[in-house]
Structure formats: structure tokens, C-alpha cells
Amino acid sequence: MSRSRALQTYVVARLLLIPLMLWTVTTVVFLLLRATPGDVVDAILGPKAPAAQKIAMRSQLGLDQPLWRQYADYMGDLLHFDLGTSFTSQGETVWKIIHDFFPATVELTLFSMIVAMIIGISAGILSASRPNTIFDLGGRLFGIITYALPMFWVGMLLKLVFAVQLGWFPDGTRFPVRMLSLRPQGPTGLYTLDSLLSGNIQAFGITLHHLALPSLTLGVVLSGIFERIVRVNLQQTLQADYVEAARARGIPERRILVIHALRNALIPVITVLGLTFAAMLGGAVLTEVTFSWPGLGNRLYIAISDRDYATVQGIIIFVSVIIVLASIIIDIVNAYVDPRIRY
Question: How far does CA 97 lie from the centroid of its chain?
């Protein structure tokens, strides 16, 4: 089988899996929400509401129908790209909720990934390039500790030290309420980008100031993943035959590290980077809740607390689509770069 034919077969096979994966996620989420204890009507009206009012609300939400009918109606709506209407947000559609809260999560994710890559890749390179030294030991400890740290604990610790005690950074929110007149307005919903596009440098500085602690929290915790992957793969690459041949030709060690070894060692990092970024777009729930960040993760937490079936299902399906598409794209890119994958 030719390379192009093998690649086409691999791509088609991966694309055919998308509907199956999304259907599985949708079905599991639908059933789990209705299997968990609690009543959405009680969450909306309160447990002491009149029985007649509860019956009317249940009929209005379609919860009086048999489970199979609810499932069929929901799948029919999904086929028309209708994620439904929130049970608790006064008729607000789930698409509008995603539109309002997703940009904040995207912005937090972008800056957190930048922090994670800078710290993690730098630590991994330093550790791998100096094996059996204090730098190698420090890199190993850094990777293990940051990977094991609870994200909410790191957020609360940084918040306590730098926001409460030192007062260097705000303790939450995305933009100060007292300065809403300066809040960036633009097409992207990303305050940093919209403030730059409008030339509002003051708003750009305020946005970065509020982004600092949440992105640092998320970035530091995730940096351990990148450190471990870079260190392991770079150590293996530095022992490869072509690297030894480059040393034998008298090529400087720094050039070997950067040009020859690091380029190949970063291939697995690209895979992890794409999947981690896609997963984070679903909302870094613990970080967003800790810093009262108005992102999709925080909104999902509120919807779960309120037993808002439609919002929970809609957000999870939206996130699932992002993760599945990212996974497919990464697999295709890897198959194109490495022919062994497609056979």
C-alpha cells in the first residue's frame, strides 16, 4: 500500500469514529445526570413549593415523559444543533451561555499554556541535558511535585500570599466591577486581544493583572506534565546513533541539542499539548471556581450545583466535540509526520 493510500485510509477510519465517540459521550452524560440523586424541579422551585406547581414545572421541562422519550427528543434536537435551553437562567439558550462564557476560558487557557510550556520545556531541557546532576534531580522532583499538587490548593495558596497578604494581584474576577467603563469591547471576547485592537492599553494592563494568578496557577501545575515528557524523550534522543554521529563530526553540543535532538524530542509534546489545550477549553473548573473566573468551567460548576440538565449536557457535548476534533487532528498530523502510525 502506498504512503498516500495508507494515509487516506487512516484519516477516513479516524473520521468515521467521530459520530460514535460523540454519541457515546452524549448517552453517558444523559443517563448519568438522571441517575444521580436529587430533583431538578426541587432545585428550581425549592422543596417546599406546592405540588401542583412542581407538576406544571416538570411538564414544562419535559421531565414527565418516559426516559426513552426524553432521550429521543434530546437526540433529535442535537441533530439540529440545538443544545436546548437552560432550566435555571430564565430561558437563556445553552448556545448563548457558551458564547458568553467561553471566551474567558479560551483566554485563561492560552496564557496558562504559555506559562506551562515556558516552565515545563525549560525545566525538561535543563534536566535532560545535564544527567545525573543536581539539575537532573531538581527536574525530576519538579515534575513529580507539580504533577501531584492539587490545583485548587495551589490556587488558594497563591491567592492567600499574593492577593490577600501582599496585595500584589486581585483575588478574583476577570475585570474590576468599579472599572466596567474601561472593559474592552470587541468581536473576539478576549479582553487582551480586544483591548489591543482598540488601542486601550490601560484595559490591556488591567486584564493581564487579573490573568496573572489564575494562569500562573494552572500553568505551574501543568508544567510538570511537559517537563516529564521533554526530559524523558530528550534523554532518549541524546543517546540516539545520529546524535553520536553528530558529536563525532565535531558539531557543538549546543547545536546538537537544539537542532538535532530537541526537534525530535518535541514531537510527543505536540500531541500532549493539543489534547491538554483542548481539555482545558472545557474549563479548568477548579481554577475558575477558586478565582471566581467567569469562564465555561465555572458556569458548568454552577449548572451542576443547580441540576441544570440542559446546560450541563450542552457544555459537556460542546467540550467533547472540541476534544474529539483535536484528537483527530493530532492523530492525522502525527500520521503524516510518522509513517509508522498509519500502518
Answer: 17
Convert the chain into a string of H (helix), E (strand) and C (coil): CCHHHHHHHHHHHHHHHHHHHHHHHHHHHHHHHHHCCCCHHHHHHCCCCCHHHHHHHHHHHCCCCCHHHHHHHHHHHHHCCCCCECCCCCCCEHHHHHHHHHHHHHHHHHHHHHHHHHHHHHHHHHHHHCCCCHHHHHHHHHHHHHHHCCHHHHHHHHHHHHHHHCCCCCCCCCCCHHHHHHCCCCCCCCHHHHHHHCCCHHHHHHHHHHHHHHHHHHHHHHHHHHHHHHHHHHHHHHCCHHHHHHHHCCCCHHHHHHHHHHHHHCHHHHHHHHHHHHHHHCCCHHHHHHCCCCCHHHHHHHHHHCCCHHHHHHHHHHHHHHHHHHHHHHHHHHHHHCHHHHC
Cβ neighbours of residue 55 under 8 Å, at least 6 residues apart?
Answer: 64
The single residue listed with the C-alpha cell 546524535 is 243
Q: How far apart are CA 54 and CA 72, in angstroms?
A: 23
Q: Which of 2, 22, 13 has its CA nearest to residue 332?
A: 13
Residue ranges in the chain modelled with pLDDT below 70: 1-4, 6-7, 10, 258, 260, 263, 266-267, 275, 278-283, 334-343
Do residues 93 and 83 make contact, with C-beta atoms less than 8 angstroms apart?
yes
**Domains and their CATH numbers in the chain:** 94-305 (1.10.3720.10)
In the block, cell 471576547 appears at 189
Q: Which pLDDT belongs to residue 321?
A: 85
**pLDDT per position as a tens digit, 21-31:** 888 888 888 88
CA–CA gap between residue 184 and residue 199 (Å, rounded): 10
Neighbouring residues of 319: CB distance < 8 A, sequence distance ≥ 6: 279, 281, 282, 283, 296
pLDDT in tens, 277-313: 766 665 577 788 888 888 888 888 888 888 888 888 8
| Cα–Cα distance for residue pair 308/337, rounded to 1 Å | 43
